[in-house]
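Below is our example:

___
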Amino acid sequence: MPEKFYITTSIPYTNASPHIGFALEIIQADVLARYHKALGEDVYFSTGTDEHGLKTLRAAEAAGKTAMEFADEMSDKFKELANVLNISNTDFIRTTDEVRHKESVYKLWQKYIEQGDIYKKKYKGFYCPGCEAFKTEKELVDGKCIIHQKPVEVIEEENYFFKLSKYLPEVRELIASEKIKVIPESKKNEVLGMIDQGMDDVSFSRTKEKYWGWPVPGDDSQVLYVWQDALPNYIAAVGYADDPEKFKKYWPADAHCIGKDIVKFHAIYWPTMLLSANLDLPKTIFVHGFINVAGQKMSKSLGNVVDPFELVNKYGVDAVRYFLLREIPSAEDGDFTYEKFETRYNADLAGGIGNLVARTLGIAKGLQIKRAEASEATNQKIKETKAKYKAAIDNFKFNEALIAIWELIGYCDKYINDQKLWQTKDARIINDLFVALNEISVMLAPFTPTTSVKIEEAVKTGKAGILFPKLQ
């Protein structure tokens, strides 16, 4: 039996069309899924959409549609994005799924009840609809949410609460000891800081009149809070409610890929929920940063939201995948401009790998090259590259894995120039280049899968089209 690898993205809200920030996340997850599949592991890769809550409800009202109509439309766009970006996901789960998702949410709720972890109380708090979360005064500046820069709403209700505080000491120990790994280290420290500052129990329901969601079991006057509804998608996707064998096979998640704005919910709320239900905990929570546009946060009001569909249509899917994975530091904020995109494209794709393939095959044209082991020096360079590449991916440093590959590409270019290969036509050196290109194609497969296949075919047949035409 092969070792299993279960990876998820977060599930984005259906209040708006996909933007480039989620494109980054799903591509990062896809790299990990493809990498582990190439290792021979049994990979299950889940993504989907988070559809209940205030954000979708208000967006639907603004569009003159029902919440369900709007959610259907947006969910289809996220499915289309996965297809356009050549994502290898196994599953796509929706939180409006009446069977496997709803039943999983209700099954989890029943576990809380059995543990005595649900109670009802009245409270008053500051609520940010953008975060779908209550905020403490420390999380506000001038009455506005730090993340969304919009005034919070004061909500006073009687709701059901979950005993988050009961499990916080255990969650703290699990994260501090890295039994749950939070990557990068800065986010691990941030989570530990949140716990150390003190956290209250969390409201897990809302009044029916003001919210959209599943009814609380046994109380139709309340609906389940969006995070109590959304987070169980990770267990629902692998059969928590409907397929015990599948669940036993794939759970726990080996990696959750999420954005930095939702780290509290995944690294604190989610483990406490699982502990209450006596379920295994995720092994790793990988947290990526935001993509800014020309140094500014992406925002509809600024008109700088980058459409990933338009980007792929203009430059091609592998170019988009490469730019996001190479230019954006894996666990930090990064910056997008069209100028940066085109500079990186011309330097690394058209002038880097594209040029190397064209040069090598152009020099080899018409020659009979006997395929053999590469020279000791080239083999050593390949070995060093593969070691750097593996270490980088194992540590979720996608940009560093690509830097290692491009160092090997640079080695090959220098080899051609130093040996004046266009004059000597040395078959031994050409063979070295063929060996290196085959290894490059294998390493590129998780990052730029179509380009990887093209390189492999070019080396096999001796014929290469233009991989990446230079942008003028």
